[in-house]
Backbone:
């Protein structure tokens, strides 16, 4: 068989490695075995046992990420369908009102409320409603003064009121 062709000696080795990794992962997850116990059970080094388990964990994480992304895609498509239907109904209702067929005081309100709930679900699905992260930082000079005052207080030579003044300064800057 030519070098690099399928079915050579490397195929059984790769298969054996995959099987060993799967066993190591199952022993760690299902049996709660330690890495030395896994190594002994499989006849490999502790480092190799760790590597095999970590490979299994990465594969599991990848599968979960992919299935989560697929679930989000399906849910988003369902929400988009609902939103299209609501928008169609809203437009139809507006046309009926314009034609004098219906007086849509309550119906229009229901459609708008439903549309807002669907849009909120869509935003939640994609994390659009997540709070904005805010970084608070203490100016370096003020932090230095606070650290010095704390050190003086711990040494018994500092004035606690001075620390309170620094904290008030800090609050004013934030």
Residues:
């Amino acid at each position: 068989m030519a070098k690099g062709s399928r079915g050579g000696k490397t195929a059984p080795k790769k298969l054996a490695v995959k099987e060993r990794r799967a066993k190591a992962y199952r022993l760690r997850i299902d049996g709660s075995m330690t890495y030395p116990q896994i190594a002994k059970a499989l006849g490999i080094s502790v480092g190799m046992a760790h590597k095999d388990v970590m490979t299994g964990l990465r594969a599991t994480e990848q599968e979960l990420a992919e299935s989560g992304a697929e679930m989000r895609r399906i849910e988003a498509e369902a929400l988009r369908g609902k939103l299209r239907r609501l928008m169609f109904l809203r437009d139809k209702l507006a046309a009926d009102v314009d034609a004098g067929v219906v007086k849509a005081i309550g119906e229009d309100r229901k459609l708008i409320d439903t549309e807002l709930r669907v849009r909120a679900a869509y935003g939640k699905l994609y994390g659009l409603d997540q709070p904005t992260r805010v970084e608070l930082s203490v100016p370096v000079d003020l932090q230095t003064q606070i650290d010095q005052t704390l050190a003086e207080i711990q040494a018994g030579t500092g004035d606690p009121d001075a620390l309170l003044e620094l904290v008030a300064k800090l609050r004013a800057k934030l």
User: Anything to note?
Assistant: The chain has three domains: 10-55, 70-125, 140-173. The radius of gyration is 32 Å. Helices lie at 10-29, 35-42, 46-98, 105-125, 140-155, 160-173. The mean pLDDT is 78.
